[in-house]
Write a structure and sequence with these properties.
Length: about 350
């Protein structure tokens, strides 16, 4: 059995966590053991444990210092005898991969899941982090072309799309949808709009409130559901109050029932300034939900079944409003399943591809 140590940001809800869970659930556990170094304990902690993983929680490097972190990762690797280290933190992987190299790990995978680094204003230091991370890796992987070019520059890399296990979804009946709407305070005649994402600048929730304000001015009856948490949450709440949108905009916090919520939306809206892959958009499509997204979202996530409309967040806001109120024809489930297969997003196939890195 090969033992793999993955480095992920959190065991809470999120794109990287969702990807890893789907891959780990579809991995042959008689051949591979996945353990994890994690920086934030979240609501999937117990699920990881149930899958047989060891979890090593660490403080952020900025909290404990690079040397202490390298020594801890080195010790974890040596004590557990890992065959490979797979870091999902992109350019932040410098010290993890260095520890793995010092520990004699032959397979060191650097995985880029984003094409932006908003926290780094010093582009020279960011360039340095990327360069050293790449130097300590033996395999470069990205979830999209943009994410790969951002982290690796002109270096060659492998594309590993985020998987979609469509068979884990329970599709709701019309009666179940009606009951769920009632629980959330949504009327039958409400236009239901939804957004899922952390409250951070890159997700651009302020743009959603601009849309909500214009819809209210047009006297369109709607509910906008915002799902997520983050540092800008209080700012968004204040903007909702300032624009008198309390009756139409609901902040639901972090939720575990994402697939149920996606099936309620008449439109899913993702006006991100940047996206590495946008797995939530993939989730929206497999729920059959029409989606309006910014042109910065990678095209790799589009299943090409007619559920995505790309729009410019710097363009005319009326274009967004027209698409929001437009009626969409439902897409048959078999077309969505075909779209997942044709895109190569089958979770079992992607799990096999990832495991091939460790041979």
């Amino acid at each position: 059995m090969k033992k793999i140590l993955h480095i992920i940001p959190t065991t809470d809800f999120g794109g990287v966590t969702t990807m890893i869970l789907d891959i780990w659930a579809n991995t042959n556990k008689s051949l591979y053991q996945f353990d994890f170094v994690v920086f934030n304990k979240g609501r999937y902690h117990d699920y990881f444990m149930e899958q047989g993983s060891q979890l090593f929680y660490q403080k952020y490097i900025t909290k404990q210092g690079p040397l202490a972190y390298v020594m801890k990762i080195y010790k974890i690797i040596k004590e557990n005898g890992y065959d490979a280290v797979h870091d999902h933190t992109g350019y932040r992987a410098v010290f993890t991969l260095l520890a793995a190299r010092l520990a004699g790990v032959k397979c060191r995978v650097l995985h880029s899941h984003t094409n932006v680094a908003e926290e780094w204003s010093n582009k020279y230091f960011l360039s340095f982090l990327k360069k050293i991370s790449v130097m300590n890796a033996t395999k470069l992987v990205a979830c999209s072309t943009n994410a790969g070019k951002f982290c690796f520059g002109e270096k060659s890399f492998d594309l590993l799309f985020n998987p979609m296990d469509i068979y884990k979804i329970k599709y709701l009946s019309q009666a179940e949808k009606k009951l769920f709407k009632k629980e959330l305070g949504i009327s039958d005649d409400d236009l239901v709009l939804g957004h899922i994402g952390r409250f951070v600048p890159v997700k651009n929730q302020q743009f959603l409130l601009k849309l909500a304000t214009r819809l209210k001015q047009k006297h369109i009856k709607f509910k906008l559901l915002l799902i997520g948490e983050g540092p800008l949450e209080e700012e968004i709440r204040m903007l909702v109050e300032h624009n008198h949108l309390q009756e139409s905009v609901k902040l639901l916090g972090q939720r575990a029932d994402i697939f149920k919520l996606l099936q309620l939306f008449d439109k899913f809206i993702l006006p991100s300034k940047y996206e590495g892959f946008g797995i939530v958009l993939l989730e929206a499509q497999v729920c059959g939900t029409p989606s309006l997204v910014s042109t910065t979202v990678p095209r790799e996530v589009d299943l090409n079944v007619g559920l995505i409309q790309y729009l410019d967040i710097n363009g005319d806001i009326e274009d967004w409003l027209q698409e929001i109120i437009k009626k969409n024809e439902p897409i048959e489930l078999h077309s969505i399943i075909d779209g997942v297969e044709n895109k190569g997003l089958n979770a079992e196939d992607i799990a096999k591809k990832m495991c091939s890195y460790y041979i």
